[in-house]
């Protein structure tokens, strides 16, 4: 039995999200929440919301015991890139790529 939550089109690069996901992978949910609350990264804010959503899905939809859950799988893949232009010297313009992420979090019960 597993509970899943996903968030799409988060305005942060997947490379930056992956650093934080590596910290919480295979951790109990209480410890994962503590890690996210005390890590000074921008990716932590949407991940806290996502973890709370996955916990709610586990409790309400799958009737799982919340105290026995751990983060089984988590991944961040690249979403569409927003392309913006930045004015530069002598009438030129450089492109700025604003990357987005799709994040998936899977919780399972400890056997």
Strand and helix layout:
Layout lengths: L1 E9 L3 H11 L4 H9 L6 H17 L8 E10 L3 E6 L5 E6 L2 E9 L2
Antiparallel strand pairs: 1-5, 2-5, 3-4
Helix pairs in contact: 2-3
Tag the structure with descriptive keywords:
about 110 residues; alpha+beta; 3-stranded antiparallel beta sheet; two-stranded antiparallel sheet; 3 helices; elongated
Task: Summarize the entry for a quick read.
Helix content is 33%, strand content 36%. A hairpin with a 5-residue loop joins strand 3 and strand 4 (93-98).
Describe it.
The protein is an alpha+beta fold. The chain has one domain: Ribosomal Protein L22, Chain A. 33% of the residues lie in helices and 36% in strands. The strands form two sheets. The protein has a three-stranded antiparallel β-sheet with strand order 1-5-2. Strands 3-4 form a two-stranded antiparallel sheet. Helix 2 (29-37) runs antiparallel to helix 3 (44-60). The longest helix has 17 residues, at 44-60. It is elongated and about 65 Å long. The model has no long low-confidence stretch (mean pLDDT 95).
